[in-house]
Write a sequence for this structure.
């Protein structure tokens, strides 16, 4: 259990919460907020690493029908899995494909999508996708295949529509528990004409209720608190950075994303090619998502974090390290 007087270092963050360059390789003991004593989560033991999944897009397998249409297929399985969400803190997660968040499913507008879902968990689950599809493919108990019992499987099939940034999650009750235990992921439908070449990143905002009081003790992007403080996300000055940002946080009404030293163009749900805002902070309810685009004008380290300071201090913060 995590005590509410959490074990990591607030003062360090206050003293060193600014972007600066030339820090060298020692990212563990340079005074940034982190777990006490520089302790680390065992990513290998978890079987997934936030530094890899930030750029991991799962395009599935494709084949072409006689009509010329592309069918894109994935296999997802639900599995119960204990993961380490803070040093020494084990959390009984429910996962898609053994990771939290689940794979970032990516496809092109207009393709036919087929997702085989196998429930290898001890609890009933579904996959509910956001997007446009028939009711029977909605992944909700009582509709179509409904709730998928342990050991059972189903296939969700629908058109990739509309272009934009969407998400998927389990829709079995109690819903908050099924989402918060880890059954959530990003779902990207690229526009038919594509998007401008960019350094693309996926950031799924989540958190963990480690003592089952229906409030989070830990906050993060891509599951592991402080992961991108320990090892910043590497980007290059002048490159177009495109972030696919999804809020899956349970138990708190809102979440937010704030970027230091820059502003970004914001495309809510990624459905329009015209940004709604040029800003440095956006606020999202659960299920809200958007695409952020910007270029770093200066080298060095730039923080990004929730602009709810409580979330920041409980783990939802990171660095971009800009080279060149
Ligand atoms: Cu579920």
């Amino acid at each position: 259990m995590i005590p509410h007087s959490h074990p990591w270092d607030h003062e360090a963050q206050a003293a060193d919460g600014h972007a600066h360059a030339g820090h060298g390789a020692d990212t563990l003991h340079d005074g940034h907020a982190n777990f006490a004593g520089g302790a680390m989560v065992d990513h290998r033991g978890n079987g997934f690493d936030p530094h890899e999944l930030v750029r991991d897009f799962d395009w599935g397998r494709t084949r072409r029908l006689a009509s010329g249409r592309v069918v894109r297929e994935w296999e997802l399985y639900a599995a119960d899995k204990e993961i380490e969400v803070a040093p020494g803190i084990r959390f009984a997660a429910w996962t898609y494909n053994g990771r939290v968040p689940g794979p970032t499913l990516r496809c092109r507008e207009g393709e036919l999508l087929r997702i085989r879902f196998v429930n290898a968990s001890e609890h009933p689950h579904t996959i509910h996708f956001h997007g446009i599809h028939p009711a029977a493919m909605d992944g909700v108990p009582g509709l179509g295949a409904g709730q998928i019992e342990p050991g059972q499987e189903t296939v969700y099939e629908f058109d990739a529509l509309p272009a934009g940034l969407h998400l998927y999650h389990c829709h079995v009750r109690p819903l908050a528990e099924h989402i918060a235990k880890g059954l959530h992921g990003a779902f990207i439908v690229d526009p038919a004409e594509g998007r401008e070449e960019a350094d693309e990143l996926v950031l799924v905002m989540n958190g963990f209720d480690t003592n089952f009081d229906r409030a989070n003790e830990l906050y993060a992007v891509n599951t592991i608190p402080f992961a991108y403080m320990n090892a910043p996300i590497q980007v290059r000055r002048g490159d177009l950075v495109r972030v696919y940002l999804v809020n899956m946080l349970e138990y708190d009404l809102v979440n937010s994303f704030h970027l230091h030293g820059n502003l970004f163009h914001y495309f809510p749900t990624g459905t329009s090619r015209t940004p709604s805002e040029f800003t440095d902070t956006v606020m999202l309810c659960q299920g809200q998502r958007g695409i952020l685009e910007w270029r770093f004008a200066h080298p060095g380290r730039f923080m990004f974090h929730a602009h709810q300071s409580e979330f920041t201090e409980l783990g939802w913060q990171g660095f971009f390290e800009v080279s060149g």
About this structure: Residues 1-29 have pLDDT under 50 and may be disordered. The pocket of copper (II) ion is lined by residues 125, 170, 172, 178, 183 (CB under 6 Å). The longest strand covers residues 70-86. Helices lie at 10-15, 43-46, 50-53, 175-180, 227-230, 309-313.
